[in-house]
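Saturday, quiet lab. Running sequence design on the C-alpha cells for the scaffold JK sent over.
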C-alpha cells in the first residue's frame, strides 16, 4: 500500500522549473558575477529589490530581501519584541511563526478565526487590555485553514492598528495562487502606515532558493537590515539573482499560470473528497493556496490518530502545533485536538481521494 503524506505544504516536484532556474543562474552570473559572488548588498540583490519595489509601488529603501519570509519574521521579531511583550496571531495560525515569536521572548495569544477572518470583537477586547508588539496574519488562503480575510475585516484591522498603534504583519506567500474568485486588496493598499508585508518565492519558483522579502517603512527596514548584517553578514545573492533573472525574462507570470493549472484540480479534489468521505465535518473551502483544514466532531474517533494513521500509511501533522495560547483564563479549546491540516498541492487528485478515504475510516 502506498504511503500518502498529508503533512507539509510543499510544491509539487513536477512544478519546480529546474531548467529555467539553471538558465537564470547562468544568465545572471554572466551579466554580474562580481556582485553576485561577492560580499555586500545586505538589503538584497539590487535588481530584485527594484522589482519588488515596483510591484508594491514603494522605494527600494522600503524593501529588504532575506533568506525566506520566516527568516525575515525572525529578524523583525528580534527588532521589535521587548521582554514581557505579547504577539497576537490568528487561532489557529502558522506553527513555525508561533515558534519563532516565542523564541524571541513573546507570549503568543490566539484570536479565533471566523469564516471571513479573525474575530474582531475578541481582538479589540484584547487590545483594550494590552497592546501587542504586533499582530500576525495570513490574510490570503491562510496557513493552516485556507480562510481568506474579507475586505471589510481588512479595513477594520487597519483602523484598529491606527487606533491602538501596533504593527500588523500580513504574510502573503499564497496570495498569487488564487484559483478562482476576485483578489482582495492587501492591508497595505488600504493604509500602509502600520503594515509590514512579507512574502517569498518559495511557492512560486522554488523553496530551496530561500528568497523572501519584507515591505515596510524605510526606518523600520533600516533597523531590521542592521540586525541582518550583524546576523548573516551577507545575503545569499546567487539565489536572489536567480529570482531577479527569472522575473526579468518574463517567466514568473508563466510559471504562476502553470501552477494554477496544476493546483486547482487538486484543491477541488480535496474539497470534494472531504464532502464525500467526511460529510458534515466543519471546514472552509478555499479559493486558492495550499491548504484545507477540518475540525472533527467531538463524536469522532480522534484518540491516537497520528499513530493509527501512520500504521495505515497516512502521514498527518499534529493539529495542536497550529494553536497559540488561549486568551486570558479561557480553558484550552478541545477543538485543537480535533484539528487536521490537509495540504493538497504536492499529491495527485487520486492520492488525495485515497488519503481522505483512509482518514475517514480512521475517525469513524
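Result came back. Writing it out in full:
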Amino acid at each position: 500500500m502506498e504511503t500518502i503524506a498529508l503533512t507539509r505544504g510543499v510544491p509539487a516536484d513536477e512544478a519546480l522549473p529546474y531548467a529555467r532556474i539553471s538558465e537564470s543562474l547562468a544568465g545572471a552570473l554572466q551579466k554580474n558575477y562580481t556582485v553576485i559572488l561577492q560580499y555586500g548588498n545586505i538589503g538584497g540583490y539590487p535588481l530584485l529589490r527594484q522589482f519588488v519595489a515596483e510591484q508594491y509601488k514603494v522605494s527600494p529603501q522600503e524593501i529588504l530581501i532575506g533568506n525566506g519570509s520566516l527568516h525575515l519574521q525572525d529578524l523583525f521579531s528580534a527588532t521589535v519584541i521587548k521582554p514581557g511583550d505579547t504577539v497576537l496571531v490568528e487561532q489557529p495560525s502558522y506553527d513555525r511563526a508561533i515558534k519563532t515569536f516565542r523564541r524571541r521572548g513573546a507570549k503568543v495569544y490566539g484570536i479565533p478565526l471566523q469564516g471571513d477572518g479573525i474575530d474582531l470583537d475578541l481582538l479589540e477586547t484584547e487590545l483594550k487590555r494590552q497592546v501587542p508588539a504586533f499582530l500576525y496574519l495570513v490574510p490570503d488562503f491562510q496557513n493552516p485553514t485556507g480562510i481568506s480575510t474579507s475586505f471589510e475585516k481588512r479595513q477594520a484591522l487597519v483602523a484598529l492598528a491606527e487606533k491602538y498603534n501596533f504593527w500588523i504583519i500580513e504574510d502573503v506567500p499564497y496570495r498569487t495562487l488564487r484559483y478562482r474568485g476576485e483578489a482582495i486588496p492587501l492591508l497595505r493598499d488600504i493604509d500602509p502606515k502600520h503594515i509590514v508585508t512579507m512574502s517569498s518565492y518559495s511557492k512560486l519558483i522554488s523553496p530551496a532558493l530561500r528568497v523572501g522579502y519584507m515591505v515596510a517603512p524605510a526606518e523600520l527596514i533600516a533597523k531590521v537590515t542592521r540586525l541582518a548584517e550583524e546576523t548573516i553578514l551577507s545575503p545569499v545573492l546567487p539565489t536572489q539573482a536567480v529570482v531577479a533573472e527569472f522575473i526579468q525574462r518574463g517567466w514568473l507570470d508563466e510559471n504562476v499560470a502553470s501552477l494554477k493549472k496544476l493546483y486547482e484540480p487538486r484543491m477541488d479534489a480535496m474539497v470534494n473528497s472531504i464532502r464525500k468521505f467526511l460529510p458534515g465535518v466543519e471546514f472552509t473551502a478555499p479559493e486558492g493556496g495550499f491548504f484545507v483544514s477540518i475540525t472533527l466532531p467531538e463524536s469522532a474517533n480522534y484518540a491516537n490518530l497520528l499513530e493509527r494513521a501512520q500504521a495505515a500509511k497516512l502521514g498527518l501533522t499534529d493539529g495542536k502545533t497550529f494553536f497559540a495560547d488561549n486568551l486570558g483564563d479561557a480553558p484550552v479549546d478541545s477543538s485543537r485536538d480535533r484539528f487536521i491540516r490537509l495540504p493538497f498541492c504536492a499529491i495527485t487528485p487520486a492520492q488525495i481521494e485515497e488519503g481522505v478515504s483512509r482518514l475517514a475510516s480512521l475517525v469513524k
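Notes for JK: The longest strand covers residues 107-114. The CA atoms of residues 273 and 353 lie 5 Å apart. Ask whether to fix the surface positions before the next round.
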